[in-house]
Structures are given as C-alpha cells and as structure tokens.
C-alpha cells in the first residue's frame, strides 16, 4: 500500500491512501480524484477545503467542529468539513500524521454508513500494511488541484 503527500506544514503532514496504479501507471487515489472533481464542480468549496488542509498542516486541527472533528463511535475516524458540504474522511497515525481515505459530498445530517465503512476498510488495510512493512510513503507530491 502507498500514501501520497497532500500537505506538509510546520506541525503536521497530511497524506492520502493510494491504491494500485492504473493502466497508465498513475496511482489510483480516491482523495485526489475527489479533489479533481470538486475543484472543477465546486471551486469555491474546494478552495475552502484546500486552505483548511494547509492551515491544519501548519497549525494543527482547529478547535472548531464545523471544520474538523472526530466522528463519535467510528474508531478514530475524523473528517475535514466545509460549510458547502465537502467532507474528507481521515484518521491519525503516529501523532503528527493525518491519513485521508476519501471524500464525499454531504447530503444528509449524518455521514452515510457506506462512506464510514469504506473509510474503516481503508484504515484497516493501511494499518495491516504498516504492521507487515508493506507501507510506502511516496516522497513526490502529486498535484491536488
């Protein structure tokens, strides 16, 4: 399993889980696909999310649950949030690393069960790859927008 660098700052690093490469050799990454889609469809909301990620990398997570919060009862899953409904699911690893799983557009009061299950599945696979020594934190940053 591989992670890609999303943001790096004074306090934290934010990485995204990537899957196997596609036919053209590019990493499949749900977070980057989410970024590309919403940079095109919702540029103002995407810009808010992008700025939030950089602020968190530099200063740590805000004490504002309207921007970042731990999801109660979800075994350590957290989410980055924008007022326009963009959500980016993530979890902490080793204190100064946040790992994103994927994003979605909120359409209900609570996070959809399928989104939470997908994030938990990716988190479990990440932790298993880490335990077995098969986790690769790629050094080169891919453009997020």
Chain-averaged pLDDT: 91
Beta-strand level of the residues, as a percent range? 25-35%
The tally of domains stands at: 1
Radius of gyration: 14 Å
Give the terminus-to-terminus CA distance.
23 Å
Order of helices and strands: EEEHHEEEEHE
Helix content: 25-40%
CATH-scheme architecture = 2-Layer Sandwich
CATH topology: YaeB-like fold
Q: What is the overall number of helices?
A: 3
Describe the overall structure:
There is one protein chain. The chain has 145 residues and is an alpha+beta fold. The chain has a single domain (2-137), classed as RelE-like (YaeB-like fold, 2-Layer Sandwich), CATH 3.30.2310. It contains three helices and eight strands; from the N terminus they run E-E-E-H-H-E-E-E-E-H-E. The protein has helices at 30-41, 43-59, 113-131, and strands at 2-8, 13-21, 27-28, 68-70, 78-81, 86-93, 97-105, 136-137. Strands 1, 2, 3, 4, 5, 6, 7 and 8 form an eight-stranded mixed beta sheet that branches. It starts with a strand and ends in an 8-residue tail after the last strand. Residues 141-145 have low confidence and may be disordered.
Provide tags for this entry.
145 residues; YaeB-like fold; 3 helices
Structure in a nutshell:
Helix content is 33%, strand content 30%. By secondary structure, the protein is of the alpha+beta class. The protein has one domain: RelE-like (YaeB-like fold).
